[in-house]
DegT/DnrJ/EryC1/StrS aminotransferase (Streptomyces kanamyceticus), 225 residues
Amino acid sequence: MGTVAMLRAAGVGTGDEVVVPAFGNVEVAEAVVTAGAVPVFADIEPSTYCLDPDAVAAVVTPRTAAVVVVHRFGNQADMGLLRGVGQRHGLLVLEQGDLGESHDGQARRRAHAAYLSGRLSGVVTPTGGAGHSFQQYVVRVPGNGRPDRDAFARAVRVKGVDCRVPVKTPVHRMPEFWRDVVLPQTERAADETLALPVDASMSRRDLQRLVSACNALGGLLQPAF
């Protein structure tokens, strides 16, 4: 069942607010609008890129009817804490996987991710426990006031690395959903994150070339934390 259908089935509609992440798919906010409700954006946890339970609780109002939780990049949101917020405030808590993710080759992707995390320098490698499926291998390239992530991406692409910016513009900064709210972790993640290839089809030589290309640019960066 899609998000719109789930919201409508739960009676969510005109006059209701639904808490959603701004980091990621605009389709989630669009689904809320299609159901007749108003999307309200909450900040994310910097380690998982999923909704921060405390941030969700902070934006709940008497009009809030539901929360849509998106599991991002293969990270799992803290559903225990998020359901706890829902129970305290009488909210429906819906889950959605990262749109377009595939479950094929998870073991191989995890092995590739472990290889990269053990060898990459100059970028902040992803954290995640056993539940992280690495649908995308997302690193952080610290900005320090400059667009280092973008410069880094251009440089590694020249070396043949097929990287991409996973979230170019947070949803709350898109014209059709503009909100005068401050979501520091969301905005920082949008500025710093870069998805490096970790496809199951990659060979060890492919991974070695990726590491060499990225580590050669380590001097460009400043520590993130």
Q: What stands out?
A: Residues 106-119 form the longest helix (14 residues).
